[in-house]
Amino acid sequence: MMNAEQYEESLRKLKLDVHMFGERVKNVVDHPIIRPSMKAVAKTYEMAEKEEYQEIMTARSHLTGKSVNRFTHVHQNIDDLVKKSKMGRLLGRETGCCFQRCVGMDALNAVSIVSHNVDAKWGTEYNKRFLKYLAYVQEHDLTVDGAMTDTKGDRSLPPHKQPDPDAFLHVVERRKDGIVVRGAKAHQTGAVNSHEILVMPTLSMREDDREYAVSFALPSDAEGILYIIGRQSCDTRKSEEGALDQGNLLFGGHEALVVFEDVFVPWERVFMCGEFEFTGELVEKFAAYHRQSYACKVGVGDVLIGAAQVAAEYNGVDKASHVKDKIIEMNHLNETLYCGCVACASEGHREQSGTYCVDILLSNVHKQNVTRFPYEIARLAQDIAGGLMVTMPSEKDLRSPETGRLVEKYLGAKSNVPTEHRLRILRLIENLTLGSAAVGYLTESMHGAGSPQAQRIMISRTVDMREKQRAAKRLCGIE
Ligand code: SF4
Ligand code: FE
User: Fold this and answer.
1) I want to staple 449 with a disulfide (CB 3.0 to 4.6 A). Which of 290, 309, 331, 397 is the partner?
2) Does ligand 1 have an atom closer than 6 angstroms to the CB of 98?
3) Catalytic residues
4) Probe residue for ligand 1, chosen from 89, 442, 444, 445 as the CB with the greatest number of ligand atoms within 8 Å
5) Per-residue b or e along 320-334, where b marks 16 or more CB atoms closer than 10 Å to that residue's CB
6) What is d(CA 194, CA 253) in angstroms, rounded to the nearest whole number?
7) How much is the pLDDT for 168?
8) What letter does residue 150 receive in the DSSP assignment?
9) Distance between Cα 444 and ligand 2 center (Å)
10) Phi, psi of 225 (to 5 degrees)
C-alpha cells in the first residue's frame, strides 16, 4: 500500500489536462484551490497505515490474499460492508469534507457484480478482464474516480434521440484493438486526484441506446481526457494569504467536468459494450453502494455538532436549556443517519459473483434521510452560532495594526476565550454550512448518488406492499 507522501508523489507524475478560471493548471498538486482536496484523499492512505485503524481501513484481497486499502477492496462478507460504513464516518470526521475515494470503490464493487452477470448470459469475458484490472488497482493502491453521471441534455429524451449525440458518453468507433468514446461526465468528485477513471452508463437503456451502454477504465491522464474544475462557494479564500477565513484549514473537496474527446480504450479495459439490458442493474448496484457511502456525512455531522457545542461554550450559552436541546436534536438526527448506513450493510447479501451488496431498500432509505437531516443539523448549528458567523471581519482586519485591537475587543465573548478562537470556530461552521465544504455537506447530500426522487422511486419499487396489506387484512378478518 502507498503512504500519503507516496500518493502525493504519484500524482505529480500524472500528465493531466486540467483547466480552472479559463486557464490550464500547470501544477495541479500544489494549486492552492485543489491542494486541500488532494490532502483529503491522502488521508485515506495515511489512516490505512495507522495501527489503530487497520481493521477499518484495510481488508484482505480475495484475489491475492494480501492486505489492501479498503477503498480498493471488493466486499466479501457482511463484516466488510459494515466496516465500509464505519470507515466513511471515520474519514468524514477526520477531514470535515468529502474525501472523494468512495466513488471508485463503489464503482469497482458494482462492476464486479454486473460484469459477472453479463458473462453468465452472453459468454463474454468482461469479468476476467475486470478482475485483472482490480488486481492492478489493488497492487498499486490506486485512487479510482467512478464516473457515472452524464450531462444528459434534454431530460425528456433518451440518449439516441438527443439533438447533440454526445449528451451521453458513447462509443463512436469499434476497432480491432478497442473502442473510441466521446462524451462527458459531470460533477466528478475528486477527478484530478485520481490515478484511474472507471466509467459506467448513467441510466437504464434500451436497444436503440446500445452504443451508450459502455463501461471501461482508463488512466486519468489518457490522451483526449480533459478536466474543467467546478467553482465552489468561497473557493478563492483558499488562495488568500492566511488561513483563518477558510474555516477548515486542512482539507476540502472538488468536482470537475470530465470531457472525453475521442478517447481510445483497449479491449482489456472494456467491461461492458452494448449489453444495454444490464445498464439498469449496473446503475442500481452502484447507486445502492454509493448511497451507503453517505456514511461520510455522519462524520462531517460529528464535526459540525462539535463546532456548535464549542461555539455555544465560547458564547457562554451552553447551559441554556434550549441550546442543550438543539445539540440533542442534532445528535439524534446524526445518529439516525448512522443507523441507516449500518443497517443497509448488516442486511447485505451475496451476489452471484461472490461480491456482497448492501440491502437496496435500506440504502435508499438511508440516502433519502441524508437529503434532509444535514440541512436541519446545519440550520441548528447556524442558530447556535449566531449571525456573527456571516458578518465578522476578515483575518486581515484581525491582524491589522489599525483595526486588530478593535476586532479583539468587540468581538470577544467569554473572557477566558481568545477572540481569535471564537472567530475560528464560527468560520468553520460557515465553511460547513455555507462555504466550500457546504458543497459536500449539503448540496452533495441532496444530489450526490442520485437526487431525492431517485431514492423515492427505488423505495416504491423495493418495498413489499403486498406483505403489509396481507398483515393488515389478516388481523381484521379480511380473507
Ligand atoms: Fe465519498 Fe461522501 Fe465524498 Fe461521496 S460525498 S465521495 S460518499 S466522501
Ligand atoms: Fe458524492
Assistant:
1) 290
2) yes
3) 98, 102, 189, 255, 290, 294, 296, 444
4) 444
5) eeebeebbeebeebb
6) 13
7) 98
8) B
9) 6
10) -95, 130
Query: 142: closest CA among 85, 193, 200?
Result: 193
Q: What is the pLDDT of residues 117-163, one digit of tens each?
A: 999 999 999 999 999 999 999 999 999 999 999 999 999 999 999 99
User: Regarding beta strands 270-273 and 178-189, do their DSSP bridges make them parallel or antiparallel, or are they unpaired?
Assistant: unpaired
Identity of the residue numbered 103 = V
Domains along the chain?
4-277 (2.40.110.10), 291-476 (1.20.140.10)
Q: Looking at the CA of residue 293, tell me the nearest atom of ligand 1.
A: 7
* Ligand 1 atom, smallest distance to 190 CA: 6
Grid cell locating 254: 472538488
CA distance 280 to 272: 13
| Mutational test site, ligand 1, from 145, 189, 292, 436, max ligand atoms within 8 Å of CB | 189
User: What is the rounded CA–CA span in Å between residue 277 and residue 284?
Assistant: 13
Give the distance (Å) from ligand 2 centre to CA of residue 370.
Answer: 12
Q: Which atom of ligand 1 is nearest to the CA of 294?
A: 7
CA dist., res. 3 & res. 44, Å (int): 9
User: Which ligand neighbours the alpha carbon of 449 most closely?
Assistant: 2
How long a stretch of residues is the chain? 479
* One-letter identity of residue 111: V
Chain centroid offset of residue 110 CA? 15
232-240 average pLDDT score = 94
CA distances from 1 to 49, 64, 70, 104, 228 (A): 8, 13, 11, 17, 30
455 within ligand 1 shell (Cβ under 6 A): no
Q: Which residue has the higher pLDDT, 399 or 242?
A: 399
436 Rama sector, left if φ>0, alpha if ψ -120 to 50, beta otherwise: alpha
Report the amino acid identity of residue 468: K
Q: Ligand 2 mean position to 213 CA, how many Å? A: 22
Query: What confidence tens digit (pLDDT) does each residue in 9-50 have?
Result: 999 999 999 999 999 999 999 999 999 999 999 999 999 999
